[in-house]
Task: inverse folding
């Protein structure tokens, strides 16, 4: 084997190993993210169960007979939800795909959720039945695409950086390529130039002090784009920081009468996260129906904390 061939083979092995390491790291992060999300969903369902909330079950594909049921959650058992229906449920429900809707009552107003599942088993008596449903691996937060929005606690947002976007250029591939932000905020600043007014898994509202909004180099009109990077605390009790980058499309603007700010209603179109100790940004398109999973976890956790359930 010549020296050139040896170098080529060695280089190929190194490249292949690098791809494997990146893939394994992404797999571990995905598993950890899924485990955390399941725990959050389990806590939410436990809270709803304790308040005897009603679950509305509807067959995804309607058939003969009754296609909807009202149930209460009795128990979370492994990968199943055990529910009680105060009615006779025929065996035809076994195996049926269903959509479950339920309400999370909160002091400031109820939040609605739904999830897709299937009926695993039915035990029926004359006027009472028990159903076993597959536990949800995800929740759609809201009804009719109205996603839960929360206003982060002041200490939950560690920093915000914002940049205008040139639509003729690709998104930045690194922090260095993004350059210094046009308007930024750090926890503890007085008269914060920009703040997160509220946020959901599909978008957010940013409030800019008017004196800083005037510095924006392009007109802030519907359809224009912004680049944002937000550092936040996922779990204030354990001080677990996180950060995400997002490209946002401007949907609307408003100026409240009681504050000298300009509020931008923004929709997430692309998002990216930095690996620990890395500076490379890998961009992903946002799902309009599910939003950004990492942001959804943060929003759901904040919602639970604000309800004093964590």
Result:
């Amino acid at each position: 084997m010549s020296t050139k061939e040896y170098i080529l083979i060695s280089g190929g092995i190194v490249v292949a190993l690098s791809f494997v390491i990146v893939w394994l790291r992404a797999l571990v992060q995905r598993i950890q993210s899924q485990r955390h999300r399941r725990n959050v969903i389990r806590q939410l369902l436990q809270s709803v169960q304790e308040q005897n909330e009603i679950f509305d079950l509807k067959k995804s594909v309607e058939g003969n007979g009754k296609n909807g049921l009202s149930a209460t959650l009795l128990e979370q058992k492994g990968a199943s939800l055990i529910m009680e229906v105060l009615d006779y449920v025929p065996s035809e429900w076994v195996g049926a795909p269903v959509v479950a809707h339920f309400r999370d009552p909160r002091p400031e107003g109820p939040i609605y959720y739904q999830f897709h599942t299937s009926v695993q088993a039915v035990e029926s008596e004359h006027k009472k039945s028990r159903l076993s449903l597959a536990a949800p691996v995800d929740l759609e937060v809201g009804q009719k695409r109205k996603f839960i929005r929360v206003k982060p606690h002041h200490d939950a947002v560690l920093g915000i950086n914002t940049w205008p976007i040139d639509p003729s250029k690709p998104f930045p591939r690194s922090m260095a390529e993004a350059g210094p932000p046009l308007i930024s905020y750090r926890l503890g600043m007085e008269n914060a130039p920009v703040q997160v007014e509220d946020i959901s898994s599909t978008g957010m509202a940013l409030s800019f002090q008017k004196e800083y909004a005037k510095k924006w180099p392009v007109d802030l009109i519907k359809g224009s784009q912004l680049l944002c990077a937000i550092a936040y605390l996922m779990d204030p009790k354990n001080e677990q920081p996180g950060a995400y980058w997002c490209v946002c499309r401007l949907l609307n603007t408003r100026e409240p009468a009681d504050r000298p700010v300009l509020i931008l209603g923004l929709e997430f179109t692309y998002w990216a996260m930095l690996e620990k100790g890395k500076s490379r940004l890998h961009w992903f398109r946002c799902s309009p129906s599910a939003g950004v999973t990492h942001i959804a976890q943060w929003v759901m956790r904040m919602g639970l904390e604000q309800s004093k359930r964590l």
